[in-house]
Specification:
Blueprint: H1 5-14, E1 24-28, E2 31-33, H2 39-49, E3 60-63, H3 73-89, E4 93-95, H4 102-108, E5 117-120, E6 134-137, H5 140-149, E7 151-155, E8 159-165, H6 174-185, E9 194-198, H7 200-203, H8 207-215, E10 224-226, H9 231-240, E11 257-263, E12 270-272, E13 280-282, E14 292-296, H10 297-300, H11 303-313, E15 323-327, H12 331-339, H13 342-349, E16 352-353, E17 374-377, E18 393-396, H14 399-408
Parallel strand pairs: 2-3, 2-5, 3-4, 5-6, 8-9, 8-11, 9-10, 14-15, 14-17, 15-16, 17-18
Antiparallel strand pairs: 1-7, 12-13
Helix pairs in contact: 2-5, 6-8, 11-13, 11-14
GO molecular function: 3-isopropylmalate dehydratase activity; 4 iron, 4 sulfur cluster binding; metal ion binding
Organism: Methanobrevibacter woesei
Catalytic activity: (2R,3S)-3-isopropylmalate = (2S)-2-isopropylmalate
């Protein structure tokens, strides 16, 4: 019988020849990730279970990224808890401060390959599906069970496959594509479904751009966000990992597959307006003054985003009364941006450049907004209070829109 990627991957991971959407399976986990914010509860729950040793320390990845360096006594305590756990359990893949955002460094450092089942105690773990893995976020207590047993139960999801066609216009990017899709289907349009991104537009995208699509699958309720592996995927993986991998593709006549056609030929830059990610409008229809611009996050803090923004900001000055915060998604990206002179462009324009971390995205670290302030952000969520005060407002856009808007002091279309 014809199957989707998700069905094939979960069948492999559970040791079954055949699974269908709706089945409950116990899957072997290939990679488990937790970080400085969600990790302490996982460790506490793990200790309460009574298991003395994790199932496989080589398959656990622990980066510090949410509150680094520690910005409070509580976050410093969390770091101490996790460092102690890493030492006690001989966790091989521990990345202390300055490594970068978890969803960027896992594929970047070779922990993600096609065909794997990856879980992370963070909802945007679905990012790694861009490399053809079944990757999803789980709770901290579920992570404790993974630490203990190396397995987790899943309900095999149905699949919404977005067949995206058309050549993107100038200053239109993957972020605009995914915002537009979320605006069309709604925040609950793919609840507990695997979201596949396919078609000529996706084939023409870089792996980094595909990560943008997969990263935001959760914003329409998706269980994971998948892109079928191709030559670009293989090239990326071979350059970064020596792990074995297996390529899976969806059979287009699979019974659990729903195909949704998306034409982006006439798409213009998009913006998600407060306070929901599916409240999406063309940038040309939004005339809003801004107090802060945030360029970064696991969605759009990659080198291509920094290049897009620097191209627009070069020789320009950020508007009076507007501040801009630039946070590269990883140390590797930061170093390349330094080598290319991008950091200098940002600083000369008046932006504040920070070390790799999540920054204001989670609403608990550097760069928060106050009551009545408006943030334009390249991140993935604009819920009330997401980046600071619940009396503030957050808009979401591409890096190009963010840079152009920083110059003008209001949300504008890049020229």
């Amino acid at each position: 019988m014809s199957k989707t990627m998700s069905e094939k991957i979960l069948a492999r991971a559970s040791g079954k020849k055949n699974v269908e959407a709706g089945d409950i399976v116990i899957a072997n986990i290939d990679v488990a990730m937790t970080h400085d914010l969600t990790g302490p509860l996982s460790v506490q729950s793990f200790n309460e279970i009574g298991t003395e040793k994790v199932w496989d320390p080589s398959k656990i990845v622990i980066p510090f990224d949410h509150q680094v360096p520690a910005d409070s006594i509580d976050s410093a305590t969390n770091h101490i808890i996790m460092r102690k756990f890493v030492e006690e359990q001989n966790i091989e893949n521990f990345y202390d401060v300055n490594a970068g955002v978890c969803h960027q460094i896992l594929p970047e450092l070779g922990h993600v390959v096609p065909g794997e089942v990856i879980v992370g105690a963070d909802s945007h773990t679905c990012t790694h599906g861009a490399l053809g893995a079944f990757s999803t976020g789980i709770g901290s207590t579920d992570m404790a069970m993974v630490f203990s047993e190396g397995k987790l139960w899943f309900k095999v999801p149905e699949t919404n496959r977005f067949e995206i066609s058309g050549q993107l216009n100038d200053n239109v990017y993957a972020k605009d594509v995914i915002l537009n899709i979320i605006g069309q289907v709604g925040a609950d349009g793919s609840t507990y479904k695997a979201c596949e991104f396919a078609g000529e537009t996706v084939s023409n995208m870089s792996v980094s751009d595909r990560m943008v699509l997969s990263n935001m699958a959760i914003e329409m309720g998706g269980k994971t966000g998948l892109v079928e592996p191709d030559e670009k995927t293989i090239e990326y993986v071979k350059a970064r990992s020596n792990k074995p991998y297996k390529l899976f593709k969806t059979d287009l006549d699979a019974p659990s597959l729903n195909i949704i056609d998306i034409d982006v030929s006439d798409l213009e830059p998009q913006v998600a307006c407060p306070h929901n990610v599916d409240n999406v409008k063309p940038v040309s229809e939004v005339d809003v003054e801004i107090d802060q611009v945030f360029l970064g996050s696991c969605t759009n803090g990659r080198l291509s985003d920094l290049r897009d923004a620097a191209r627009i900001l070069k020789g320009k000055t950020i508007a009076k009364g507007t501040r801009m915060l630039v946070i590269p998604a990883s140390k590797e990206i930061y170093m390349k941006a330094l080598d290319e002179g991008l950091i200098k462009i940002f600083v000369e324009a008046g932006a504040l450049v920070s070390a790799p971390c999540c920054g204001p995205c989670l609403g608990g670290h550097t760069g928060l907004i106050g009551a009545g302030e408006v943030s334009l952000s390249t991140s993935n969520r604009n819920f009330k209070g997401r980046q600071g005060s619940p009396e503030g407002e957050v808009y979401l856009s591409s890096a190009a829109v963010a840079a152009a808007s920083a110059i003008e002091g209001k949300i504008v279309v890049p020229q």
